[in-house]
User: Fold LLM class flavin-dependent oxidoreductase from Paenirhodobacter populi.
Amino acid sequence: MALPGKQILVNAFNMNSVGHINHGTWTHPRDTSTDYRKLDYWTSLAKTLERGLFDGLFLADILGTYDIYGGNVDLTLRESIQLPVNDPILLVSAMAAVTEHLGFGVTVNVNQEPPYTFARRMSTLDHLTGGRIGWNIVTGYLDSAARAVGRDAQTGHDLRYDQADEYLDVLYKLWEGSWDEDAVRRDKAARVFADPAKVRKVIHHGRFYDVEGYHLSEPSPQRTPLLYQAGASGRGQRFAARHAECVFIGALTPEAAQKTSRDIRAAVVAAGRRPEDVKIFVGINVVTDRSSAAAREKLQDYLAHTSPEAGLAHFAASTGIDFARYGLDDPIPYGETNSIQSATKLAQTQKWTKRDLLAKHALGGRYPALVGTPAEVADELERWVRVGEIDGFNLTRIVAPESYEDFADLVVPELQDRGLYKTEYAAGTLRHKVFGAGDRLPARHAAEAFRPNRLAAE
Ligand SMILES: Cc1cc2nc3c(=O)[nH]c(=O)nc-3n(C[C@H](O)[C@H](O)[C@H](O)COP(=O)(O)O)c2cc1C
Assistant:
């Protein structure tokens, strides 16, 4: 919970693509995001983030393309609105090799692959990173993703979460239940690598998944990766309440963040956990410089390169509404959506027209922007944490990597002076760094039911 004097958590928010949140800024002369396909772009970014003591690099991902706006992908391609987009998982080993502490939160859709193979990929990364891997659980919101793999449309909104619940159960069985803690002996003299009595086959026959098999990886430092989630609808929050350790919310004001944050913590408590068992992150833009005037000038320079229309095309995909069909001041019939319910509901409540939406996407995206000197930005960050009852931020890149460098060089020292930011990394796994309570999920988490001691008792 937001307490005075607590340290603020910060992730860099990024994607293995050119356009991410702030559309259009790839055209800025100092922006290097078109190099996203080169390894040194990522290794150099990881080193910058570790220099700034960022808690993690949070990598978004999307399966499918943004084809709602105008009914095609023309603008999506011209402005590179999350297309092309490369696989985020493949970046992690390289970045882990050049860092010691930085965490990695990787978005993977539960529809991407069966839980059995996904469990091994995460365990592999947990081993290779020394326990620095996190997973952002997403269920998808694009019909284009379903069509790309031979289905007519995506599964219904709430059913997607039901399926994801079972996907997680299978993963917990594999990560937490298949191998006992002392299963691996590595005893050369006795010729025993692993004790067969301490490794068990997972047998799962459910509504969506059938699995019979041993987890392919031996226990990794965290076993289950640190779990991120971003669902904000009622069903999405119930899913978060059961599984998520870090919840990523979109909020335009600290007051809006407070409401969402209270709702999430109440749902977490209803699920038998503690309010502080989830850390809540808000997506934020920061534009800073040594003087207020220089920061405002920097903002104007960024604004000259953004594409509000590309931002709107992204929002069209999030809501499933083709805004290209409407005049600037036409009322927009927001209805039920099978895409991101929370995004659509907000637009509906506010009765946003296309003109309103273009203005909201002035920076190419809709995230709140904090603009000013490091002290002014720090004041605002403090206010967001206090009023919003949040724990930290996912910091966007407006211009890459400048946005992260400015934060590391200017804002971090200011926050450190106020005692609001770490001055060195804590030792241990990502989960331990974030919660300070060990490497593994606590016993009050849903995963506990799938641990060997619990399985044996049944
Ligand atoms: C801030 C934020 C970031 C998200 N990032 C991704 C992402 O990278 N990939 C993705 O497929 N979905 C992403 N989503 C979508 C969510 O995972 C989820 O599918 C969506 O919010 C639907 O939730 P709701 O209908 O419960 O609100 C994001 C959502 C929010 C609010």
